[in-house]
């Protein structure tokens, strides 16, 4: 009897296992493909540098004396880019230094007058205490000392003013050494040795690409705009990449413009009447993978 019961239980267990296998197949590592995120919107875009390129303007009027860097070179803040020559600026420094020397000479002269006036007043005061001096002579000596001390104060002020003028003139001379205002790469050097430059309305001495991450500026049309939100994940593919299998770069929407505007991707193309786009800025996980100015296709994922 026990043997019969055992056989029945074994048969029942085998039947349950077979039923379970037919209704609930065992999952394997290759049974189901990974689910791709669904696209919520698509847009065209362009890699841009926030704030644009950095144009280094001439600080003073002059002539380019020498160029210390080459196009394509990386620079750090404070590195020398160019040296200018300006006779007018150097003449201003020489004049300011001469004025300082003159003021210092006057200061010494006034100090030399004050000491005898002080001694004379002391002698008249001593004689007055002994009753051997006219009070009027003592008052004259006191007045002479006041005038001498006033002259010293004026001379001191003139020296201070002359020093300030020298510092200002020296600052202008120091500006003849044009340095990089921040880290970056030299894109262009429009001014070469011998070029005459002007501080007002003149061309740039150098154009730098700042050393900070570039962003993608995507232009979303009106039909896709409601689906685009800050913080969304995106996939960025450069224009011209071969086929649908082109490697996409991951990114995230950082901010969205609060206003509508015309497209700026094709600046040479005529603006279509009534066409508006919404700009959104995208940060890439690998910002160095694309170059500034490169056009891209952007897919926004839910």
Please mark out the parts with pLDDT under 50 across 5 or more consecutive residues, or reply none. 1-34
Radius of gyration: 41 Å
The CATH H-level superfamily of the largest domain is Efflux pump adaptor protein, beta barrel domain
What's the structural domain tally? 3
Q: Strand fraction band?
A: 25-35%
Q: Main sheet, how many strands, which sense, barrel?
A: 6 strands, antiparallel, barrel
Summarize the structure in words.
By secondary structure, this protein is of the alpha+beta class. It folds into 3 domains: 39-50 and 212-301, Elongation Factor Tu (Ef-tu), domain 3 (Beta Barrel); 54-84 and 176-210, RNA polymerase II/Efflux pump adaptor protein, barrel-sandwich hybrid domain (OB fold (Dihydrolipoamide Acetyltransferase, E2P), Beta Barrel); 88-174. The chain is 35% helix and 27% strand. The chain has helices at 2-23, 87-129, 135-174, and strands at residues 39-48, 54-56, 62-67, 74-75, 80-85, 177-179, 184-188, 196-197, 206-210, 215-221, 233-238, 249-261, 277-284, 295-301. The strands form 3 sheets. The protein has a 6-stranded antiparallel β-barrel with strand order 1-10-13-12-11-14. A 4-stranded antiparallel beta sheet has the order 2-9-7-4, with no helix packed on it. The longest helix has 43 residues, at 87-129. The model is unreliable at 1-34 (pLDDT under 50).
